[in-house]
Amino acid sequence: MAAYIIRRLLLIIPTLLGIMLINFSLIQFVPGGPIEQIIARIDGEGDAFSGIAGGSDAGANEGFESEESGYQGARGLPPAYLERLEIDMGFKRLRCADGYDGVPLLAAEECVAVPIGLAEQFVRLIGRYLIFDFGESYFKSRPVVDLVLETMPVSITLGLWSTLIAYLVSIPLGIRKAVRDGSRFDTWSSGIIIAAYAIPGFLFAILLLVLFAGGSYFKIFPLRGLTSDGFEDMTRLQQIGDYFWHITLPVLASSISGFATLTLLTKNSFMDEVKKQYVITAKAKGLTEQRVLYGHVFRNAMLIVIAGFPAVFVGVFFGGSIIIETLFSLNGLGRLGFEAVVNRDYAIVFATMYVFSLIALIVGLITDLTYVLVDPRIDFESRRT
Q1: 0.70 surpassed by pTM
Q2: Which residues contact 341 (CB under 8 A, 6 or more apart)?
């Protein structure tokens, strides 16, 4: 098993490389870019140079004031400033007459900015990401790794708790439905879970806010955030209670759609196993139904359920978190990545993509290890990966 784990960990590197290469290539076809976004912001918001340049450097404002000291932003950005932005963002480098080749601020007339090829940009990107150096956000002027670390706990909270609750409810319910197939309980429960699956997650989240977060009826749960004011001053027990108080509605909203798929998958898997010959033989030997169900059928039936864990977790963690985080005003990784895509903040876009892919690959490895725990007959060492 140790050799298999090592092989899988080594395979993560080329897999990540392939994922990043495909997405890096696709990004090149997206219209607009960070430079265009900055120009649009300046045109719409007036003088924004101090915010995007990260200081009051005199060279940044060169060419923006006429002889009458009037603002000239509406007449177009000076080429020197645009070149500076492209150099700072890694799209160009300085090439000077004395042979210097680097990426500092424009400082000498004999230096010219030349584009950096896409291949070199990608190699630089991967080289930094291998050591988790994600650079700095174009628009937030903060290290991307700090932004990722700040927002990741929110997304992990939603993903883990939603997946855990979905499995804790769906597996026992699916087993019960398989045992009582065709009964009134099976019919009514199927209707309820299918109706729950048909409700969009964002609509259910709005319903929870209206009913239980002071929208129109009860004010039982907080409207936004993951913790209350003064959280640091609370005792450990109070902090735990406050944490669960805040995540109740977001977790319910993000987990409702996963119940139907998991429940029906569990039911169908158990029903398929119950019809097999070894179950009939076990019953013929006088074993009780509970012994047959949980001693023999459970392990075989759960394999297909476990196989769906990565898809469920990734779907909740990546897909549903964006809307849920927005509705409940949670600063999570999904919301950060979405805002970065809208703003063409490529530093954050690629960083969140890298983190998402890495987590998904690790979850896949954990799923394989869970196979062995459920059914010790599985031996990955005998396989070639």
Answers
A1: no
A2: 349
